Antitoxin ParD1
Amino acid sequence: MTVKSSISLTDPQARFARALVESGQYSSLSSVLQQGLELLRQKNEAEELEVAALRQLVDRRMSGPMISAGEMDARVERMIARKQKSGNVGT
């Protein structure tokens, strides 16, 4: 099903869309706009999935054992020392 709609484009947007059609990349302005909306939909879905995954990670971390700032500093220092020893991090 398709829905006809009237939209407004800025002059640069219209020039860009027409150039895509004239170059043969798209068959019509509608095709350009449909592709643009599809890419925006995909981007939004990917961002929603990323936010959900980050929320799960934060929830998992918050429900796990807590360590002191001093212990975290010590862990980071040990990790840096290991990386430097293996040559994976500059000094």
Remarks:
- Residues 29-63 form the longest helix (35 residues).
- The chain is about 70% helix and 0% strand.
- Residues 11-86 form one domain.
